[in-house]
Amino acid sequence: MALAIFVFITWCVMIIFSLIPKKMSELDMVFLYFINTIFELSIFTVVHLNLHWIEVNRSVEKSMADLVYRLIMIPLVLIISSNILLYPWKYLKWAMALVILLSLIAMHGLEERLGIMKTPHWNMLQSVVMFSGYILFSRIMTWFILRVDRKEVQAP
Amino acid sequence: MIVYDNRFNTNEWFIIGGLCVGMALVIFLPKRFPTKNTIVYFMCGVYSGFFFDHSLSVEPVSYYDVNDKSAFQFMDFLSYLSYGPMSYLFFYIYDRIRPKPSHIPLYILIWSLTAVGLEWLAVRTGVFHYLHGYKLAYSFPIYLIVQSCWIAFFHRYHNVRSNERDEAAR
Predict the structure, then answer these.
(1) Which range of residues forms the domain containing residue A57?
(2) Fewest CB atoms less than 10 Å from the CB: which of A18, A105, B5, B69?
(3) What total number of domains does chain A contain?
(4) Which residues in chain A have their CB less than 8 angstroms from residue B55's CB?
(5) Are strands B64-66 and A55-56 parallel, antiparallel or unpaired?
(6) What is the extent of the structural domain holding B74?
(7) Where are the membrane-spanning stretches (chain B) (predicted)?
(8) Model confidence over A78-95: pLDDT tens digits?
């Protein structure tokens, strides 16, 4: 059941991603997908394997659900947040970024409820810091890749 | 946590040496792609390394450990980074020789065999430690699939660029 729930939610995230207006080129988003996955997986591996703050369930179904969450859903959500933060809205974009942050925290909670992972040394504040860090990192990488583009255009 | 080794020895030198040679090739080869493409083609390899290592070497069954400990170390990160020059060279040579469509499977086969050869060296030097019956041969189809995806990605992006250029011309 856990796998089906996470695949369903990931599919909904993909639908949202395909519907929102994009502020970046396809290549920019591919870059963001790669870099966000690498960053998020590195942080998670340190927290999981080195610090043992999080324990992932070893059953095939639940660990697959965790992989769907980490390899597809989180990077996609971060691309959505980076696109939204590029919108010309003044306050609404920050409100939407906050909604995304809360959704990520809720997904973390859902993982715990479904028994996908246990969090013996973890609290809500750590989730807020971790996911805020992901969103901030994604925004910085967006700035970087768009700047590369601008430099290329100016160069000739 | 499994500890294989505590010293700075062949596996670390293999990674550092490979990364230096790879980065030197990326930096000193004549520029072929715009900077953004270069970054993305480089990241393709790093992402693929992370993707497979974090899906095959974690729960439910960890099929291999990387470097001295089963925990994540900085040297593990460098080993994933060393996949970057591989993917860049893959795209670079592909774009340089532009094989006919009928020759693309051969191109992928040569690169997959090269990758298997490099993985064999990495196993010999202690970069990878196979567990639960994993064998080098199992990596071969993974390389074939990943590199086929890279070719599809290259052509997809090439088509996007062509379409954008056509639209700009109109």
Answers:
(1) 2-6+36-143
(2) A18
(3) 1
(4) 67, 71
(5) unpaired
(6) 10-169
(7) 13-30, 39-57, 77-94, 106-130, 136-155
(8) 999 999 999 988 889 899
pLDDT digits (tens, 9 = 90+) for A121-151: 778 888 899 999 999 999 999 999 988 867 6
Counting residues of chain A whose pLDDT is more than 90, the rounded percentage is 50
Q: Tell me, yes or no, whether B4 lies in a domain.
A: no
Interface test with A, best of B2, B38, B56, B58 (most A CBs within 10 A): B58
> What is the number of domains present in chain B?
1
CB contact under 8 Å between B40 and A31, yes or no, is yes
Taking a C-beta distance cutoff of 8 angstroms, is the pair B51, A71 a contact? Answer: yes
pLDDT tens digits along B94-123: 999 999 999 999 999 999 999 999 999 999
End-to-end CA distance of chain B: 61
For residue A108, is it within any domain? yes
User: What's the CA dihedral at A82, A78, A48, B84 to 10 degrees?
Assistant: -80
* A58: closest chain B residue by CA: B60
ipTM topping 0.90: no
What are the chain B neighbours of A147 within 8 Å (beta carbons)? none
Asked if residue A130 is part of any domain, the answer here is yes
